Amino acid sequence: MIVPTKVLFEHAYGKYALGAYNINNLEQAMGLFRGCIESQAPFIIQISKGARSYTDKRMLEAIIRAADEIFPEALFAVHLDHGDEQTAYDCIESGFYSSVMIDASHHPFEENVEITRRVVEAAHRRGISVEAELGMLGGVEEDVKVDEKNACLTDPDEAYEFVKRTGCDSLACAIGTSHGAYKFSGSQTIRFDRLAEIQKRLPGFPLVMHGSSSVPQEEVDRINAAGGCIKGSKGVDPNQYLPAAKLGVCKINIDTDGRLVWTRVHREYFRDHPAEFDLRGPGKIFMAEYAKFIVSRNQLLGSAGQLEAARDHALSSLAVVR
């Protein structure tokens, strides 16, 4: 069942974080749904601007609609990840999305406020939530490219002013993570001190953590052993997910890890079966492996086992709205 993102946030706040997983094809969708049903977790499906143009936005939407019918017990929201202003409007008008992200964080503060406020006004007219971003994460993810020297943490005072002036429904904060597989070096880690300061200024307000893949070393090693060349990668310690949730982080974005699972499965499969050419062989393995990965992450997020309670809350909230 597709539900408003804000309803999921209401149930999760301060207790657990929702896994926000990007999908690009049917194999990812099937693995994601199977893993969330197995772990009994509510979740968020993310579609990025790049994913919408990879095939056709209607193809991904059709896959999600089909999955909703195949897995009627699932509880999830559909979210636009890292949208620009025009893409956000397109998703708002489609009527399919639970929430959209407008990422104007690369603009000066005042321009970010103005762009975000315009999107918020359009989205709220349709009952759709808006995620905005303040501060800039380093790294690379699809259209998002920020040199580490230009990355900057979210200022708590600016965060308060930004939310007040824009009316956004959640805020992606830069607290030390970065996009892609190359997140940390040395002793660098999530800045929980900065996160706590932001929560103090925005009590009860849903925060979002981007760039939160853990980049499992075992996956990287297996990819490299099967002919890959991924070096020096290091991700977020997944044991930090739940402590972040206790400080108001309701949504944690995990994308790179899923790509690593996909790459590992396909490299190993064709290494071990050099005469094969049927894409369904590795596809079946990937769906099972991705489901297993999703289960592990939902357990660390604290969302595992929350499905029934989250559904009760959602049905109650939607009944009141109607």
From TrEMBL:
Cofactor: Zn(2+)
GO biological process annotation, one example: carbohydrate metabolic process
Binding sites annotated in the UniProt record for Zn(2+) 2: D103, E133
Active site: D81
Keyword tRNA-binding belongs to the record: no
Superkingdom classification of source: Bacteria
UniProt-listed Enzyme Commission number(s): 4.1.2.13
Cofactor: record remark: Binds 2 Zn(2+) ions per subunit. One is catalytic and the other provides a structural contribution.
Keyword Cell wall biogenesis/degradation (UniProt): no
UniProt keyword terms in alphabetical order: Lyase, Metal-binding, Zinc
Descriptive protein name: Fructose-bisphosphate aldolase
Source organism per UniProt: Chthonomonas calidirosea (strain DSM 23976 / ICMP 18418 / T49)
